[in-house]
Amino acid sequence: MNRITRRGTMALGAGAMAAASFGARAAIPMGNATAPRQPIENGATLRVLRPTKFVDADETVFRENTAKFTAQTGVQVRVDFAGWEDLRPQTAVAANTGAGPDVVVGWADDPHIYADKLLDMTELATYLGQKYGGWLALPQRFGKKWGTEQWISLPMGGTGAPCVYRISWAKEAGYDSVPTDHDGFLKLCQGMKRNGHPAGFALGNAVGDGNAFCNWLLWSHGGMVVDEAGKVAINSPQTIQSLRYARELYQTFIPGTLSWGDINNNRAYAAGEIGLTQNGVSMYFSLKNDPRTAAIAEDTGMMRMPTGPAGKMAENVLLLNAMVFKHSRFPNASKEYLRFMMEAEQYDPWLTGCGGYWSHPLAAYGESDVWKSDPKLAVYRDTNTVEFWSGYKGPISAASGSVAADYVVVQMYAAAASGQSTPEDAVREAERRARRYYR
Amino acid sequence: MADTTTAAVPWNPKRAAPGALARLLDNKAFLVFLCLLPAVGLLLVFLTYPLGLGIWLAFTDTHIGRGGVFVGFENFESLWYDNVFWNAVFYTVFYTAVATVLKFGLGLWLALLLNENVPFKSLIRAIILMPWIVPTVLSAIAFWWMFDAQFSIISYVLVDVLGWRTSYIDFLGTPWHARWSLVFANVWRGIPFVAISLLAGLQTISPSLYEAALLDGASSWQRFRKITAPLLAPILSVVLTFSVLFTFTDFQLVYAITRGGPINSTHLMATLAFQRGIPGGQLGEGAAIAVSMIPFLILATLFSYFALSNRKWQQGGSDE
Fold first, then answer.
1. Contact A113 B66 (CB under 8 A)
2. Which terminus, N or C, of chain A has the lesser number of Cβ atoms within 10 Å?
3. Record's family (chain B) (predicted)?
4. Which positions ≥6 away from B116 have C-beta within 8 Å?
């Protein structure tokens, strides 16, 4: 979650911005649906809290859309941008004190922690779903209260981490694309390593990249941290198998990945030190927009990581999840604001401006021009169709966030991959630590 | 006329009886209390209350966003069986001990050198303060680059320029390399404080003592041993106490460079408390880790205070 440190390297190009302003929205297919009646209260003003931008357009387009809302409704809106790591504590303060922002665009789990303090979103979510081709799998998971059909939040976008690799180096190793199975993937990495182009995945205390890589390892082998009931179930043959696989894969890594934070893979990839890693779309744009690295971007391919059981995509996605607190004096204005931001006239320019960094939660936006502007981006289009989530396969709770922040899964893989622990010891330690949070 | 004067009305000044407030303010005990009130208030609000709250939280299962209930020693019990916590305790003690010894050894040496008559003395002193003045996070980021696995300048010089090694050093990826790298960064940052403080102490020692010793034919080692060391001891103990406290509670260097990695081998108690308490949301457990630092800190303070400052020879006696 602290990809914030990479912000310096991000600057989305004018190309993406231009696409945002010229009629991209025409392409979004819309179904018939009547917007819920939400008469805006007299004299309403709103405060909105959201995470700070990671790509420039995220803030500029978001602010433009907000200004449009003010122009059309007369509702003054103040948008505050909080650091990614500060957002969770700030949401907690708003929830506990019953004061502060009306709308919080928080992280995936947060609305579920404060479910009883939030306005019901069912009507609005149903409307948006009908109009824009339905909600994708992950937003459904995180929008609805666990085990019910009641919506408590509106997922706004998710950022995933597919495989990013050098096309020519993969070819040199005998592969035209990234294999969809684990064995093939390992062989690809081994081949590239032999040619002097090692892979590199963060195994250090990197909240974003570390958890992305290690959750993929776990889920794609059929492992899970907890079962459906929220009981710790990490100590399974599947997990052991994934740890053995991690040990093999680690041999193809560049040295030093145990110390890698969220930024190291970007740097090493941009410098041509590694030939394969996992990342959000932002890295591709920063390579493409810098003349010195444009050639690397040209040679960069982006594909799914090997899939999980039954061919399911098993990548970690970080979701933006908007909620309205019951303590808001202007509930209708808050909901109207969110509806306005999710409508194609506003949402599509935002999606496009960010270059797909926050991938859409509503199926119809799959037709957005951003996904056609560069065929390489296609893999990011399906980000939110993933059926795995942080804390899979248990109910969404505060515990999954704690497990991620304490790097329980990351350190299990780091210990086993580097050979500091046997897979059995590593998984027992992770089990003990996970139990501490899921009690 | 005279009659009238003798029969004058007795001068009976009617002094207004002092008001309740005036009498209260005349009361010395009350006045002392009143004057202390702002200071006591500040201490209570900004020191006692947070400390008390921290200790209370350590005995609850509070999460961020959800209140907690009193759980007794549950947090501490769980920490007792937590390898990560014991790793952090070990590394905190190791980090503090090694860094302090190095800082004092090198700092004292530097102070002795600077106490000699060297040209451009004040300029050199100013330069020496640099590591101490630079914000810790900035120097941490500089070290982070120097210790980078792929782009380290140290590795670059050793491998590509001098050719002494064939592979880059994995400074932060192997536990002991990472531990020593952080100690090095801390020592670099801490030496100026020690050196400048000890230099101030050295300059209070009267030169006549050295002259007398010279006349008696004392060697330079004897002069150091019998004059410098004992007279420097009081300030040494103060500086040592501060230095130990700063090092033990260090946070920024470790958090900015390794975040406690690889696999928790460089977690300090402070960084672990933060990681569990704030991003991890387990305020109760984070507070318990922070509270666990208190006994160590008291012990360290008592040690440096009693071991160094309360010697009989400082009062003219002998304790040998």
1. yes
2. C
3. Belongs to the binding-protein-dependent transport system permease family.
4. none
Contact list in B for residue A261 (CB cut-off 8 A) is: 259
Helix or strand or coil: residue A195? coil
Omega before residue B262 within 30° of 0, cis: yes
Confirm or reject contact between A115 and chain B (CB < 8 A).
Answer: no
The CA distance from B44 to the nearest CA of chain A, in Å, is 24
φ/ψ (deg, to 5) at A39: -60, 125
Q: Is the pLDDT of residue A109 over 80?
A: yes
Mean pLDDT across the stretch B239-246? 86
Strand ranges (E), A116-221: 154-159, 163-166
Question: What is the DSSP track for A67-111?
Answer: HHHHHHH--EEEEEEE-TTTHHHHHHHHHHHT-S-SEEEEETTHH
End-to-end CA distance of chain A: 25
pLDDT tens readout for residues A256-295: 898 888 888 888 999 889 999 999 888 888 888 888 888 9
d(CA B191, CA B181): 16
Question: What sign has the CA pseudo-torsion A349, A354, A355, A358?
Answer: negative
Reported confidence tier of residue B138, pLDDT bands at 50, 70, 90: confident
Instruction: Give the Å distances, CA to CA, from A242 to A237, A401, A412.
Output: 9, 22, 11
Measure the CA–CA gap between B34 and A160, rounded to whole angstroms: 61
The domain locations on chain B are 88-268+294-312
DSSP A300: E
Helix (H) or strand (E) segment spanning residue A17: helix A14-21
Which A residues in the span 76-105 are in contact with B, Cβ-Cβ below 8 Å? 85, 88-89, 91-92, 95-96
* Nearest residue of A to residue B145, measured between CA atoms: A264
- For residues B58 and B284, is the Cβ–Cβ distance under 8 A? yes
DSSP-based three-state secondary structure for B70: strand
pLDDT recorded at residue B310: 55
B66-72 long-range contacts, CB within 8 A, separation 24+: B66/A113, B66/A398, B67/A96, B68/B283, B68/B284, B71/B284
Q: Give yes or no for A363 touching B (CB within 8 A).
A: no
DSSP letters, B37-50, are HHHHHHHIIIIIHH
Residues of chain B found within 8 Å of residue A415, distances taken between Cβ atoms: 263
- pTM for the whole thing? 0.81
Query: Domain B88-268+294-312 is of which CATH architecture?
Result: Orthogonal Bundle (1.10)
State percent of chain B over pLDDT 70: 92
Is the backbone of residue A98 left (phi > 0), alpha (psi -120 to 50) or beta? left
Which structure tokens are listed for B9? 């009305």
**Identity of the residue numbered A60:** T
Tell me whether residues A406 and B280 touch, CB distance under 8 A.
yes
* Residue from B64, B79, B82, B268 to probe the interface with A (highest A Cβ count within 10 Å): B64
| Structure tokens that stand for B235 in this block | 């300030």
Q: Is the pLDDT of residue B309 over 70?
A: no
CB contact (8 A) between residue B150 and residue A264: yes
Per residue in A391-414, pLDDT (tens digit) is 888 888 878 888 888 889 999 999
In degrees, rounded to 5, the angle at the alpha carbon of residue A286 between the alpha carbons of residues A282 and A289 is 135
pLDDT tens digit sequence for A48-77: 999 988 888 889 999 999 999 999 998 999
pLDDT tens digits, A120-155: 999 999 999 999 999 999 999 999 988 889 999 999
A24 is written with which tokens? 């991209």
Residues of chain A found within 8 Å of residue B261, distances taken between Cβ atoms = 204-205, 258-259, 414
